[in-house]
């Protein structure tokens, strides 16, 4: 039988609900999102259900993590649909605060996780990971979950949050979850709805180039050679505009000139199709 989903919009109400659950000794799992749910988000809920007694999902499009020329205003939103999907997936509490509820006054406290926040998306989206770390820390303070579930599609985000949790001794266990893909390999993302049909077709090159990169790694090619072949492959798609392609250590995200056995690394890329910026990555250990 489907559980009843309770939707709450205020921090006070959520805290009251969670206090009762905690007294009953329930293990609380948390899935933070920006909504416009898809199978990727639902896989996090599925994973949470394996270890937790009560699942909290947040839907909050966080203005702090968007740059001035980014898509905060037009980010896709459909709370009714999300609420139905969350209920079917087994979410117990859906937290949907307004911007005013989360930030009633101008935010003067920022969390900066240096190092891991700097390359990749940190370079392309200045301030983005400060916004992410700050809102995630705030959400952790509100929910106080035992476990929090994040998708590896945002591999750098996982590295940033893990570093923050270690540095600040936040009492939560971060559970990274695998990337969920469409049948043609495109990583699921709320932003995929922005893609025009021809852009959508060409966007499969992200995953194709990652698969090729993995083959080349297996053949013992150097990171620079692999990167060059990925650039060439992606440039064959006329609508693709490369933001970055990098091969770095994971989770430290430091440069990697050569690869040695046992090394964990990430091949990460961001590519624009028109105004839509897509990311994808592959994490592997040699
Ligand atoms: N395809 C996916 N597979 C696994 N997890 C995912 C996938 N897409 C998103 N997630 C995870 O869901 C959580 C919420 O992400 P978010 O709401 O930003 O979704 P999104 O689809 O990544 O949106 P965006 O278009 O902003 O990238 C994050 O932890 C994110 O990594
Ligand atoms: C973690 C997060 C919900 C913080 O706003 C967001 O960055 C996301 O959806 O990945
Ligand atoms: N999933 C990452 C959130 C963002 O792009 O702002």
From TrEMBL:
The keyword Signal appears for this protein: no
Main localization category: cytoplasm
Active site positions: 41 (proton donor)
Catalytic activity: (R)-pantoate + beta-alanine + ATP = (R)-pantothenate + AMP + diphosphate + H(+)
Pathway(s) it belongs to: Cofactor biosynthesis; (R)-pantothenate biosynthesis; (R)-pantothenate from (R)-pantoate and beta-alanine: step 1/1
Positions of ATP binding: 34-41, 151-154, 180, 188-191
One Pfam family of this chain: Pantoate_ligase
SUPFAM superfamilies per record: Nucleotidylyl transferase (SSF52374)
Protein residues bound to beta-alanine: 65
Other notes: The reaction proceeds by a bi uni uni bi ping pong mechanism.
Assembly and interaction partners: Homodimer.
Purpose: Catalyzes the condensation of pantoate with beta-alanine in an ATP-dependent reaction via a pantoyl-adenylate intermediate.
The name this protein goes by in its record: Pantothenate synthetase
Lineage: Bacteria, Bacillati, Bacillota, Bacilli, Bacillales
């Amino acid at each position: 039988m489907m559980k009843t989903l309770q939707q709450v919009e205020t921090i006070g109400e959520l805290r009251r609900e969670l206090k009762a659950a905690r007294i009953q000794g329930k293990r609380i799992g948390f899935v933070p999102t920006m909504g416009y749910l898809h199978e990727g988000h639902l896989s996090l809920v599925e994973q949470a259900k394996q270890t937790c007694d009560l699942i909290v999902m947040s839907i909050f499009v966080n203005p702090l993590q968007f740059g001035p020329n980014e898509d905060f205003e037009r980010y896709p939103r459909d709370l009714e649909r999300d609420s139905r999907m969350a209920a079917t997936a087994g979410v117990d509490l859906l937290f949907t605060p307004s911007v005013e509820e989360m930030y009633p006054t101008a935010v003067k406290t920022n969390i900066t996780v240096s190092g891991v926040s700097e390359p990749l998306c940190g370079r392309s989206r200045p301030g983005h990971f400060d916004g992410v770390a700050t809102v995630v820390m705030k959400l952790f303070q509100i929910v106080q979950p035992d476990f929090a579930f994040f998708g590896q599609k945002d591999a750098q985000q996982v590295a940033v949050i893990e570093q923050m949790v270690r540095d600040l001794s936040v009492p939560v266990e971060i559970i990274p979850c695998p990337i969920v893909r469409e049948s043609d390999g495109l990583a699921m993302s709320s932003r995929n709805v922005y893609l025009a049909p021809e852009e959508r077709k060409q966007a499969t090159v992200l995953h194709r180039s990652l698969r090729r990169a993995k083959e080349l790694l297996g053949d013992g090619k150097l990171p620079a050679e692999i990167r060059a072949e990925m650039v060439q492959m992606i440039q064959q798609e006329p609508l693709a505009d490369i933001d970055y392609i990098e091969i770095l250590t994971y989770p430290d995200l430091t440069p990697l000139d050569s690869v040695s056995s046992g090394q964990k690394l990430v091949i990460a890329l961001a590519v624009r199709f028109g105004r839509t910026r897509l990311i994808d990555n592959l994490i592997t250990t040699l």
